[in-house]
Amino acid sequence: QRLLPKAQWTVGAQRLLLHGRYVCLARTPNCLHCVLSSDCEWEGKRKPT
């Protein structure tokens, strides 16, 4: 509830699934174009060079 109000949970879940499918891929995540990068805690996050 901190990031998303309960009324938007269903749409938010669908958007997270699409985000995982097209941006945050398991083998090659596109961290530089990720809108969630500032909230992401993944240690392997790629930094801009």
List keywords for this structure.
globular; mainly alpha
How would you describe what is shown here?
The protein is built from one helix and no strands. It is an all-alpha fold and 49 residues long. The mean pLDDT is 86. The chain has a domain at 1-32. It starts with 8 loop residues before the first helix and ends in a 27-residue tail after the last helix.
- In terms of DSSP E residues, the strand content is under 5%
Q: How many strands, what sense, and barrel or not for the largest sheet?
A: none
**SS content category:** mainly alpha
Along the chain, the helix and strand elements come as H
Total beta-strand segments? 0
Helix fraction by DSSP (H/I, runs of at least 4): 25-40%
The separation of the N and C termini measures 34 Å
Low-pLDDT stretches are none
Backbone CA Rg: 12 Å
State mean pLDDT (0 to 100 scale): 86
Number of helices: 1
Overall shape: it is globular
List the helices and strands and how they pair.
Elements lengths: L8 H14 L27
Summarize the structure.
The chain has 49 residues and is an all-alpha fold. It has a domain at 1-32. The protein is 29% helix and 0% strand.
